[in-house]
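Entry for the shared binder. Reason: the reviewer on the internal report wants the predicted structure included alongside the sequence.
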Amino acid sequence: MKKEIELIMFDLDGTLADTGRDLASAVNYVRGHLDLTPLDDRLVYSHVGRGVEHLLRSSLPERLGKRFNEIMDLFLERYEKHLLDATVLYPHVTETLDYFRDKRKAVVSNKLHHLTVSILRGLGIEGCFDAILGGDSVSQKKPNPEPLREMLNSFGIQPAKAVIVGDGDADIEAGKRAGVCTCGVTYGLGSKEELIEANPDLLLDDLYQLTRYFR
C-alpha cells in the first residue's frame, strides 16, 4: 500500500543531476593552477555532497589552508562558467516530477543556492519545485536536520508526511534527525556502501521507483 505524503525533498548532486564530471573538472582546474597533479574523477565524486568547502578541503593538501579563500574564489569562477558542460539529469527525473506534480516538492542541496538554481534552470526543471534551498540558505548544512526542518516549517507539513531523497549518507542522517521518511538512490555520486550503512527506509535503483511507494 502506498504511503500518503505531502512533501518530497530532493538532493541535487547525485540525485536529480549527474554533476560529477563538471565538479571534478573544476577541482582539477584548481589543482593544475596550484601545480598539483589531477585527481581521479571517482575520488572527487566521493567528496561531493557536503558543500563546496568540504569538497575543496578534501581535494587539496592541508598546507594550502591559508590560501583557502583565494582557492575558493578560483574554483567558483571556473565552476560557474562550466556548470552544465557535462551535467545532465538522471533517467526518469522528469517523469517522476510529473507523476508527483500535485505534491509539494523542494530541492534541499548543500551546493550554494545560486549554483543550485542555475543548474535546475539550465536543465529545465526549476519550475517543478515549490522551494529551492542551498547550502548557504540556512545556518547549517546536511547532515544537520535544519534545512529539512526549514522546509517542513515553511509549508506547515508534519515530518510523517514528508520524504527526503538523496544519494549520500548526509541526506539520510538529516532525514532521520528531522523525523521524515528517508529514501536513498544507489545510482548517484555517493558511496553505495556508506548509503546502505546509513540504513534508509527505502533504497532505490531508479528515481521513478518512488511512484511505487508514495502517492
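Summary line for the report: Strands lie at 7-10, 17-18, 88-89, 104-108, 131-133, 162-166, 181-185, 202-204.
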